[in-house]
Amino acid sequence: MSARILIVDDLFPNVKLLETKLSLEYFDVLAAMNGPDAISICEKGLCDLVLLDVMMPGMDGFEICRRLKSSPTTAHLPVVMVTALDQPADRLRGLDAGADDFLTKPIDDTALFARVRNLVRLKAVTDELRQRALASREFGMGDPLALATAEDGQNASILLVEDRASSAERLSAALSQHHRVTVVADPHDALVLAIEGDFELALVSLDLQGFDGLRLCSQILSLDRIRNMPVMMIAEENERARVIRGLEFGVHDYLLRPVDRNELVARVRTQLRRSRFSETLRGAVQASMEMAVTDGLTGLHNRRYLDSHLAVLFADAAPRHRAVSMLMLDIDRFKTINDTYGHDAGDEVLRSFANRIRLHTREIDIVARYGGEEVVIILPDAEPEAAHHIAERIRERIEAVPFLIQRETRDIHVTVSIGVACRHADDSGPADMLKRADLALYRAKSSGRNRVEAEAA
């Protein structure tokens, strides 16, 4: 997997050494010799991952990392600190600044390349979400990136898979200060619990008694329901080859024994922030998709949704000779309601009208606002007689109960006229059925309103 790697180091020989190694692995390499230049490159979107030295004059690596991770524009960029500093306090300081990893020189090239590929792969998923989420701003949803960046990575539900009682107790105690921890010793029980529970992160020991912990990680990552949940490995110092294998197939992070409790807390927080960042973006994407096909006033589907789904339904129904019926509804004398009580009252009527329709339609039915006070209902697998019965039931319920308006301070009588049509074998498309439903609605209006009329025989 090729990617653009930014090396940030004030020593030219260090830059050239890393550049040579990464180029041989088919990465594109950029370089910055100081903090401001590095931040500028990142803000322009010119790199996919940052390899960051710590000890630099002026702005050091910790400050660069903090600035990158606190900005909605660059918070998604993976940052790996590469430094000669080897004290636990230094590693913790880097992780607290937001670094995705902290590697101490001399660096094992195989481990470095595996980590880079792992983080670049995760970023590729986030990049797609970012682009789609940014489009949600067109719907007035605010800035999803700013909301996602504000996540603190605390108060999560964590699944800890560890069969060493003493180790499980220490790990759980460290994490329980900030999270809810469930400890499971049996890997089979852990997989079931991961699927059925509501965990945000799994922490798996690789050396479980009689079971390959790496396989459990693989199983978790392969299941649709939980494949986005971060998975972290706990391994022995001599298990580095297995750690690299785990990173290659998608495990998010790892810790080596003996586990430093502060590093544990920091790495878990980093994974949770990254995961919640992505979940926030997914939520924004989903909300924007719903808004794109939903009428803002009534909450019904809009004309765009109706047109696209009706075309698909028609194409599917024709070769299978499936019945498809349509109801076209129009509120009687709606202009009079607006003129007499005001447009706010008219909006109240439309919202209540939509709610009553929902009560008398099925989940498989398509209910869409067609325009103004008109609503179209598509009834898959409904024969003409059944469609007429449904239409009559809706008409009765609209007429039976007055509509509350002006913040429920008064009520008015409302009726509806409905035209019914069904798919014909010789229809060239949905427009033919729509036209017949519209003509039937016209007859209902012309015949005195508050009635149901079927298409002409």
Structure description:
This protein has 457 residues and is an alpha/beta fold. Helix content is 49%, strand content 18%. It contains 16 helices and 17 strands. It has helices spanning 12-24, 35-43, 61-70, 88-96, 109-134, 144-149, 165-175, 187-196, 213-222, 240-248, 261-292, 303-320, 334-341, 343-359, 384-400, 430-446, and strands at 4-8, 28-32, 49-52, 79-83, 101-104, 157-161, 180-184, 201-205, 231-235, 253-256, 324-331, 366-371, 374-380, 403-405, 410-412, 416-422, 452-454. Helix 5 (109-134) runs parallel beside helix 11 (261-292), helix 8 runs parallel beside helix 9 (213-222) and helix 13 (334-341) packs across helix 14 (343-359). The chain is elongated. It starts with a strand and ends with a strand. The mean pLDDT is 91.
What's the number of helices?
16
What value does the average pLDDT take? 91
Radius of gyration, in angstroms, nearest whole number:
30 Å
How many individual β-strands? 17
Strand count, sense and closure of the main sheet?
5 strands, parallel
CATH topology of the largest domain: Alpha-Beta Plaits
Give the arrangement of secondary structure elements.
Elements: E1 4-8, H1 12-24, E2 28-32, H2 35-43, E3 49-52, H3 61-70, E4 79-83, H4 88-96, E5 101-104, H5 109-134, H6 144-149, E6 157-161, H7 165-175, E7 180-184, H8 187-196, E8 201-205, H9 213-222, E9 231-235, H10 240-248, E10 253-256, H11 261-292, H12 303-320, E11 324-331, H13 334-341, H14 343-359, E12 366-371, E13 374-380, H15 384-400, E14 403-405, E15 410-412, E16 416-422, H16 430-446, E17 452-454
Parallel strand pairs: 1-2, 1-3, 3-4, 4-5, 6-7, 6-8, 8-9, 9-10, 16-17
Antiparallel strand pairs: 11-13, 11-16, 12-13, 14-15
Helix pairs in contact: 2-3, 4-11, 5-10, 5-11, 7-11, 8-9, 13-14
